[in-house]
């Protein structure tokens, strides 16, 4: 963030004493306050009435708008033509209200697709295969790579893909031996414009401030996820823990030796120590 006035200096000083979570919460409220009144009201009401997290719904709405806009809207600046092209990952614990946010934001897309499907079936019911028109579609959920490529080929202006369990597709893309993973990587890198991504994209002066704010917000969220997980180690039970559990469940020393891989004399000594502690 550039420093332009005393308020910016005050914000800089204030942020120096805040955690990443506190900074992210402040940025989230700033972003929502700059949204059109309809979106701002929807996000705030959904949180107040349905407890849908604001950050989940904001990301879902930005995704839905990007999907709906596709090639219909573009920004011409500095010799470039730029189209909406967004990728979001909603990361939360089990039980968090993630799916309702996506369902609410993409409801207009699903409604449009359902109407176009009925229209497609009606118009093509008596036509030969070669005469049938293409089905108009915006939104795919948990699609295979073949379905995604085919639907995008038929709908070059835009296609949005909602993947509920992102971990599995990331695992495939990380596997160099997976042909499906390679196909997904290529598909995502080509983007919504059906062209290779232009990494030198420009944005105009009217949107620069909110664009920077949104990027900072998601970058800090990424740092929060890293901070919470990078030093998180699986807590394995100690030998003493295993012995206590074995004694409690009437297991034998032989069972503990098999589980831990330690020699019998060490287990026997620790076992006797635990029995003595239980007796005192």
Could you characterize the architecture of this molecule?
The protein is mostly helical and 280 residues long. The protein folds into 2 domains: 35-124 and 133-203, no CATH class; 239-279, no CATH class. Helix content is 60%, strand content 5%. It has helices spanning 6-16, 20-33, 37-50, 54-69, 99-124, 145-154, 166-174, 179-190, 208-229, 239-248, 253-260, 264-279, and strands spanning 74-77, 80-83, 139-141, 160-162. The strands form 2 sheets. It has a two-stranded antiparallel ribbon. Helix 6 links the parallel strand 3 and strand 4 (160-162). Helix 10 (239-248) runs antiparallel to helix 11 (253-260). The protein is extended, with a radius of gyration of 27 Å. It starts with 5 loop residues before the first helix and ends with a helix.
Features:
two-stranded antiparallel ribbon, 60% helix, 280 residues, extended, 12 helices
